[in-house]
Amino acid sequence: MIEAIREIGEYSLQSQGKRLEDPITIIIEDPASNEKYKHVLTIILKKSNDGFIFEKINQEEYSPDRIAKYLYRQKSTRGTDYTPTARLTDKPENTLKSKFVNWFEDAINNKNLDLTVNEVAFLQATLNCLTQNYDKILSEFKEKKAKFSKKETGIITLKYSDTSEKYIGDIPVFEKIFVSYYFEKNWYSIAYQTTSKSDNQICSVCKKECPEVFGFVSTYTFYNVDKPGFISGGFDRELAWKNYPVCLTCALTLEEGKQFIEKNFDNFNFYGIKYCIIPKILQKNQNMKIFKLLSDFRKDLQGDLKIKREHENLLSSTDDEILDILSNQENSFNNNFLFYNVEKSAFRILLYMEDIVPSRLRAMFKAKRDVERKELYKKFDASGQPLRFTFGHIRQFFSNGIDQDQTKYFLEITNSIFTNKKINYAFLMHGISQTIQQAFTEGRKTNSLTFQGLQLLDYLNHLNLIDIDKRGTEMTGNQSMTVLDEITTPLDERIERIFNEFPDFFNEPAKKAIFLQGVLTEFLLYTQRKERNVDRGSEPFRKKLRGLKLDEQFIKGLFPDIQNKLEEYGKNYHSKLEEQIAKYTILAGNGWRLSKDEISFYYVIGMDLSYSVMITNGGK
């Protein structure tokens, strides 16, 4: 991944005409993190014989053309930043104290900055002016900020007035400190008051011997020095450079690559989880094509004229998904996916997947299309809309479920699909069955969950990622045909159509018997709703289903109870269906090799697919 980021950084530097000799253009940040940043408050300090005089606070319109003059880069949400330019907060007094007064105090006392006597005198004179006029500055600050709309914010910075007005980006000492702070963070840990760098060592990124390498370069938080296990050299943080030595040139190139990724390949949404795509070029001269493909897609999404591209979605149903477009490219590059979240400005990596080539994405989309073609999914809801497969099906069962830390399971399954790794079938069945059982117990409809669970298993089966248990008393093809040859009614044709559409899921008689008994159960529940005029979830027989926590002996004993109840209502029109349940139950024998989760799932599939069987009077 680091090599991929470096290549992207090199491309960005070249395409934008940036030079490593001018590091400010690389490490500077846009203080306007979103469109709400409309204003700039500038504290005007006027030159006097013995220092500076506070003149006023001006209000200006924010301009991206002045980013170099604002000279901003965030160092800390609470403490000082790289320069006395700060984003506004709800508490002006905190901003003025922590981002201005404290900044000058820290800079003056920082021995690593190597400031001249005149530079220190300049900073001290500024600090004196700020502290002497603190109350007046704060009062004007609050007054100006109070006039902003609630939907708008801005930044605050300094301007120096002499013969002309200068922003801090126009003054060399601020540029010097800005660059020094960036370089310092690569080799000096403020938290541990520790230096980690070495001379004439091999850089782990460019593989060249360099005059200096640093130990605290952290493009993304793959490792840190907080725990001894991450540190070589006897837990000595000064030797952290041995783990990951990076030269200054590579540190700057990685920084440029990261910024390019954040601007063009980042901030895609995956059900509340952010992710970025980091392409790694495998064939020469392909970088411009691939990088432009991704950046143009991002520009289309963010532009005033948002272009609706024709592409299918797999990860989610939102427009900001480019996977289908990437899947149609040649295998001249691979994709690295970084899933993360940011809490209180702390960047946390949740999942990192690497080396995903376009052909793998094509296989994933082909499986999606194959599954969606099945008749069962084509008219899914009341309006006749089809059921489209997305990773939202996984999210449904492995994020909103009963167990703790479901997001972990959600991402593990996601990773297995992308990297073509087997997924435990019993684990999937458990997650799906638990969610459906909970909905059933609460009296909610289960058909949407059932269909999504079946489609998820079907999708994974198409990708050959699950091993459906085929042990036990599975019928041979001849046995199956013998049974079906004896039955030629339309009912059987409808049922067999379902079985044939999902042969891997209905591959043994026990599963068919369970499914069909679920169908019959739903007919009984429907009869009770009509006869007793009760809502779904209030049917008396529902209580006998034990919240769908079923096993072999229980459902075998339940079958005659269902028949008796239908007879009591005078509504037992389902003799043909009951014949098939009995036949498949006999063929299945005793000691089914199915888990309780499987039994429950096949039962509820039958209940929710009962409308597809469409039994009419006389069982025809």
Structure explained in plain terms:
With 620 residues, the chain is of the alpha+beta class. It contains 24 helices and 13 strands. Strands 1, 2, 3, 4 and 5 form a five-stranded mixed sheet that branches. Strands 10-11-12-13 form a four-stranded antiparallel sheet. Strands 6-7 form a two-stranded antiparallel sheet. A hairpin with a 2-residue loop joins strand 1 and strand 2. Helix 4 packs antiparallel against helix 5 (117-132), helix 12 crosses helix 17 and helix 16 packs across helix 23 (596-608). The two termini are 62 Å apart.
- Secondary-structure class: alpha+beta
Contiguous helical run count: 24
Largest sheet: 5 strands, mixed
Instruction: Quote the beta fraction.
Output: 5-15%
Helix content: 40-55%
Unreliable runs: 227-234, 470-489, 615-620
Overall outline: elongated
**How far is the N terminus from the C terminus?**
62 Å
- Tally of strands: 13
Mean pLDDT metric: 86
Radius of gyration: 33 Å
Layout of helices and strands:
Elements: H1 2-16, H2 24-27, E1 37-48, E2 51-61, H3 67-70, E3 86-87, H4 92-109, H5 117-132, H6 134-146, E4 153-161, E5 165-167, H7 172-187, E6 188-189, E7 194-195, E8 197-202, E9 209-214, H8 232-235, H9 248-264, E10 268-270, E11 273-281, H10 287-302, H11 323-327, E12 333-343, E13 346-356, H12 358-372, H13 375-378, H14 392-397, H15 406-419, H16 425-441, H17 447-462, H18 477-485, H19 490-501, H20 509-532, H21 552-569, H22 575-588, H23 596-608, H24 610-613
Parallel strand pairs: 1-4
Antiparallel strand pairs: 1-2, 3-4, 4-5, 6-7, 8-9, 10-11, 11-12, 12-13
